[in-house]
Design goal:
Helix content is about 25%, strand content about 15%. It is an alpha+beta fold and about 210 residues long. It has a two-stranded antiparallel sheet. Strands 3-4 form a two-stranded antiparallel ribbon. Strands 5-6 form a two-stranded antiparallel sheet. Strand 1 and strand 2 form a beta hairpin. The two termini are about 35 Å apart.
């Protein structure tokens, strides 16, 4: 495998390029020649042509990708948009970012220092390595897990006996008043059962960890 990288310095280091390195790299060509005592090529004895690697087609929607990047501007953050039908990644944004072409032929000291010492940390892929609380997006998955493991049924009424939390000034003027803590899995998922959406009901799902 090491011989396949002789004569080239290009290798996928992160992300898709790293995951599909073997498929993308192809096969390095070789040439066997006879040389003189002075190291000058006299004649070609054998050769093996190089073969290009495979092409990987991404599911990224370039229009959506650009839209999200433009909306972020210079702000820090990350966003990953998935197609719920098949899990394909439609947009994958980490901001602020940098020009990867700077690394192709070796980045110079000035640009490296600017990227490495920036307070915005552009070299950090926030979409992959950032630590963000999942928020209410986590709740539907907990509901599915509860239904799958039989901890809850779709029509089961849950009575939350824990204290209700009311967050001052969080409820929008157009939001409905807080409902009764008696709710089903479907109702809890629809309303998200969080103070951020002006509800005081919390449904707790207890799932057995996978062995």
């Amino acid at each position: 495998e090491q011989a396949n990288y002789r004569g080239t310095e290009y290798i996928g280091k992160l992300g898709v390029e790293q995951s599909y390195e073997k498929e993308l790299h192809g096969t390095t060509g070789t040439e066997q020649v006879e040389t003189s005592a002075g190291g000058r090529a006299v004649r070609k004895l054998a050769s093996t042509p190089a073969t290009s690697g495979n092409t990987v087609m991404l599911s990224i929607d370039i229009k959506l990708q650009k839209l999200v990047e433009d909306l972020y501007g210079d702000r820090r953050g990350a966003m990953v948009a998935l197609d719920p039908r098949n899990g394909e990644v439609l947009a994958f944004v980490s901001k602020p970012t940098f020009d990867p072409n700077l690394f192709v032929d070796g980045i110079d000291h000035e640009n490296w220092q600017a990227l490495n010492e920036s307070i915005d940390k552009p070299l950090l892929n926030r979409a992959l390595r950032g630590t963000y609380p999942p928020g209410s997006t986590y709740k539907p998955f907990m509901a599915l897990a509860a239904l799958e493991t039989g901890k809850r049924s779709a029509t089961q009424i849950t009575q939350d006996t824990s204290p209700s939390w009311r967050w001052p000034r969080w409820r929008p003027a157009s939001a409905p008043p807080p409902r009764s803590p008696r709710t089903t899995v479907r109702g809890a998922s629809a309303a998200t059962c969080s103070a951020a959406t002006a509800t005081t009901a919390w449904v707790r799902w207890t799932c057995t960890p996978a062995s």
